[in-house]
Amino acid sequence: MEIIKILCISASNIKHKESNESTSFRICTIAIAELSKMIDITNNSIIELKNKTINPCVGCGGCFHSNRCVDNDCFNDIYESIIHNDIILIISPHYAPIPAKLAALLEKMEQITFLKSGKDDTYKSEVYGKPTGVISHGGGESWALVSYKKMVNDTIANALDTIQLKIVPLSNEWDTGISLPIKKASFSENSIFPTQEYDWDFITSVIFEYTEQIAHITKGTK
């Protein structure tokens, strides 16, 4: 039996929410569950970036020789996890346009690959060709999804291309992953934060359709 391991990165920065209240974390659990119906998963894990310390890349070049960041062990641990898993899922809310820690994670991985490939155009990164799914979500309704794709999915996909991870498309139109809408957002007098409602049955059905594509591509690489 093939050994297939999944890593899901929950990119939300919101620390005042517990994991079971986080939309990104819940999407991670749904995506892993749906994939588990299609392929034999031997191990799965979720990394919540809100609990991690990822410093911005300063372009020092130290990673050229070490293939790791020389001053950010937390990043290195996450990078090792990406290397040693077979499927990567990135779940990102729409911020400005993506969460700061996710941006830092991507730019560090980009730098490692960019410096190497600049010297050797045959260079293959340690994560070369690894199937990677991208799922974005935000506060807008379904009409806003196209803008989320442009701002969130496409931004992430551009970085993944440099890193040499293999972005999984849903379709020709949705070629950089999928985006999920909110059902309703409301504010109360007791909180500065909105209460967000989601149609989780609908979201699960969309995730199922996308994970079918991820499973298909994964089987083709094994």
Account of the 3D structure:
The model has no long low-confidence stretch (mean pLDDT 92). The chain has a single domain (4-221), classed as Rossmann fold (3-Layer(aba) Sandwich). 41% of the residues lie in helices and 18% in strands. It has 222 residues and is an alpha/beta fold.
Give a topology summary.
Layout: E1 4-10, H1 23-36, E2 41-48, H2 63-66, H3 73-83, E3 87-93, H4 100-119, E4 131-137, H5 145-163, E5 166-167, E6 178-180, E7 184-186, E8 195-197, H6 200-221
Parallel strand pairs: 1-2, 1-3, 3-4, 4-5, 4-6
Antiparallel strand pairs: 7-8
Helix pairs in contact: 1-6, 4-5
Instruction: Give Rg in angstroms.
Output: 17 Å
- The CATH topology is Rossmann fold
Poorly predicted runs are none
Taken as a percent bin, the fraction of beta residues is 15-25%
Fraction in helix:
40-55%
